[in-house]
Each structure stands twice: as C-alpha cells, then as structure tokens.
Design brief:
With 450 residues, the protein is of the alpha/beta class. It has three domains: 43 residues; 264 residues, Rossmann fold; 80 residues, no CATH class. Helices cover 29% and strands 22% of the residues. The protein is built from twelve helices and 14 strands. Strand 1 and strand 2 form a beta hairpin. It binds adenosine-5'-triphosphate, iron/sulfur cluster (SF4) and magnesium ion (MG). The site of magnesium ion has 3 residues, from helix 3.
Length: 450
Amino acid sequence: MSIIDKFKKNKDNGKTSDNHYLTGKEIRAISKANMKEMRRLEKAKRRRVPESEFTAEMKDDNNILEIENLHSYFFTDQGVVKAVNGVEFSIPLNSTVGVVGESGCGKSVTSMSVMRLLQGPSGQIVDGSIRFKAIDYKRDENGKFIPIYERDENGEIVREPVLDKKGNPKLDKEGKPMTRPKQRVNADGLGEYETEERVFDIAKMPMHEMYRLRGRQMSMVFQEPMTSLNPVFTIGNQLDEVVLLHVPDATKQYAKKRSIEMLNLVGIAMPERVYSSYPHELSGGMRQRVMIAMALACEPRLIIADEPTTALDVTIQAQVLELFNEIKKKMNGSILLITHDLGVIAEMADYVVVMYAGRIIEKGTASEIFHRPCHPYTQGLQKSKPTMKSSGDKLFNIPGNVPNPVDMPNHCYFRERCSQCIGKCSGDYPEMVEVSPTHFVACHLYAKDD
Ligand SMILES: Nc1ncnc2c1ncn2[C@@H]1O[C@H](COP(=O)(O)OP(=O)(O)OP(=O)(O)O)[C@@H](O)[C@H]1O
Ligand code: SF4
Ligand SMILES: [Mg+2]
C-alpha cells in the first residue's frame, strides 16, 4: 500500500480532519518515505556496473528509440506526482514522431527522461526501458577508442615514422628510426576510430555513461533559446564547446570550421558575424536557429525538440519547421517533436502520440489521428482547433480539468470530462486496444469484448 493510499484510508476512517490538506505529521511521513526512495534511486544512478547491465536488444530493428512502460515520478512533500505513468511508443528510423497533449500531461518529462535530464533527487525514472540504437565508438580493454589504421594493398597496416617536437625522426636504443601504425584520417584531417551499432537502455544507464549519447547521438532543442544559451559567451564559444567535447581529437580550428558550417546549414546569413556575436545581439528566430545548429553539431541520430517554435512568431515558426524537415533529410535522423499545437504536428509528424495526465491515450500515424481520431479527448482536441469555417462561432472547449496528479483515480482519467462515457468507464483504467496495426487507443468504447 502506497503512502498516499494509507492517508486516504486514514481519511476514510475519519482519522484526519481535512480532506484537502495534509497535516504536518502526514507531510513528515511522506517526506521520510520519499527520502528513502530518492536515496535508493540516486545511488542506483551513480553505481559502476558492467555494460551488459545497460545494453539491450531492439524489439523492432527499424526503430531508433523504443520507450516501454516508462514511469517517471516526482517525489514531493504533497505526495508522489506520477508525471509519466506507463508510457510506451517507438520512433522509427528517419521519421518524425509528434507528441501532443495539454499542458502538464507529461510531454516534457517524457523527453527529459529520454535525455536523463530529470532534476534529481525529486525527479526520477522509477521503472521502464528506453532503448536507443546508437553508433558507439568501440573501446579496448582500457576503455580507449580503437583507431582505424591505414592498410596497404596487401591488407597490412601501414607504419609511419615517430617524430619528435622538432619534426625529426625519433630513434630507438639501437639507433633505428621508430615507427607506429598510421591512423586513417578523414577529410578534415581528424583521426578515425572504429564504431559499432549498439542498443543502450537509457533508463538503466549510470549517469556517468550518458555522455556517450547526449550531444553526440541525441540532442535537444528547448522552447526558450534565451534561457538555454549562456549570455556571457559568444555564440561561437558555445558552439565550439559542443564540438570540442564530443568529437575525438577535434582542434579549435576544426571546431570553428564546423560551427560556421552548422550556422550556414540552419540558414543564418553572415555566419562569421553571428559566430562572434553574443546571444542578446540576435533576434528570437536567429537564437532558435543557433540552438538547432548546436543540437546538430555532432550529427545526432535523434533530435528532441520540445516546443521549438512556441516562442516564435508564425512566419519564423514556418521557417524553423521547414528547417527541421530539411535537416531530417540531410542528417538521416529522427525527430521527436513535442508540442501542444496540432497544426505543427499535422505539418511535421509521420506518427502522433496523444498524452493525457501522464499516459498515452491514443497513438497512430498522423493520417489516422487526424482523419479517424478515436479517443473522445483526441476528438475534442481536433474540434477545439480554430478554423476559418468556424469564424464567428464559439470555439469548442473540453470542459473540466485533469485529475490531481498526486491522487489519480483507478478508472479512466478522462471520465469526468467525457461526453461519451459508458457504464464500463467507472471500472478499471482502459487497456490499449488495437484499432489498426499502427493505431491504438485506450478507451472502453473500443474494447474488443463489447
Ligand atoms: N520539478 C517538478 N516537481 C514536481 N512536479 C513536476 C515537476 N516538473 C513537472 N512536474 C509535474 O509533471 C507533470 C508533467 O509536466 P510536464 O512539464 O511534462 O508537462 P508538459 O506536458 O510538458 O506541459 P507543457 O505543455 O505546459 O510544457 C505536471 O503535472 C507537472 O506538475
Ligand atoms: S474510457 Fe469511457 S470515459 Fe474514458 S474516454 Fe473512453 S468513453 Fe470516455
Ligand atoms: Mg513542456
């Protein structure tokens, strides 16, 4: 029995005087229980474990990300906020998956969980898997990256002379010139290293291993660029830092070249000038483009964009969305696009996930969700979209509010707001029902046994 259930029981027995406020004693008890759980989870995050504990297999090889039964909670003095409560969806390679839902439904917490950026100790992933297919560097027994060596026509590794600081050949004890295997270099003159495709379970990864993925394999574009960019460093400094941190053997010259290339890619005119500007010298649209350039600097396989256009006006919004589409093609990557704007989703997404109060209530292809929405909430969302036809009419709204996240009911969370409620809706929370091989809905109206 959870601590909340215990308090509910106490309330029912009339042991507490108030139905809405917790007493000091109750808060202390919740706090104590939370502390125990948070300590356990924080310890688990810092543990050193063999790689086998956080590597996994993809269920479907066409996916780049598979989220399964994800539970991310916040341990607060008022109780446990189940911000993400059993979320499951996948992102196929080279596709855009849009996540929609009203404010507070857990969209950002889901994306933060994927990046492992939930603010501890109160925010924690308590259960589930987040499998991500990464191109990881191979390592030797000392944990060092394994270089790719140049080979001659017979397949033999080519050796090169070892030079001292002045550029003269170094000699061994017998006076012979020393040699070493010659590492292959890419077009930018950087040494190449062996890579392999590996699947990591992010939810089980210790925090110190996350640097392998964050920035290099997956990156995030936040809603408000001014709070994500550091006001005291130039754009160039901040872009270079990403490259220097994540590209092995990167030099300052290479970082600058790459940063300017990225500024060009995101459509910034005069990238050299922007490179030496400070964030406050740029417009909102340019700052968002810089954020996208920063996210792209290491050619990630997955870009998570959390409301990337909410702070922008409509023309800039259209340009930034277009930019995302172009980038997806160029980078051969996938995008997880989080927004509460159905218009943005319609424009961008191949698949759509609809969230409500920490759970997925419907998911399918964009066409299924827009043309055949099943869940009463998704239907309501569609109806509440302003259109030219409805000008002058009152805009449709979904009455009521989301239940208290600390004390979710056992029945469908949408019941109190639903106009299509049936007898079964007072029973257990509805299971996900398959409407088509790609379309699923959690609603009793579609239960197969009816
Ligand atoms: N630090 C925190 N402490 C406690 N609860 C939190 C915290 N951060 C988020 N939550 C709760 O988690 C739930 C999900 O929040 P989240 O930020 O994911 O919503 P969202 O869907 O991104 O909303 P929005 O569209 O407004 O960005 C909310 O109920 C929120 O109150
Ligand atoms: S399960 Fe019942 S209450 Fe919930 S959305 Fe479906 S019809 Fe409405
Ligand atoms: Mg959010």
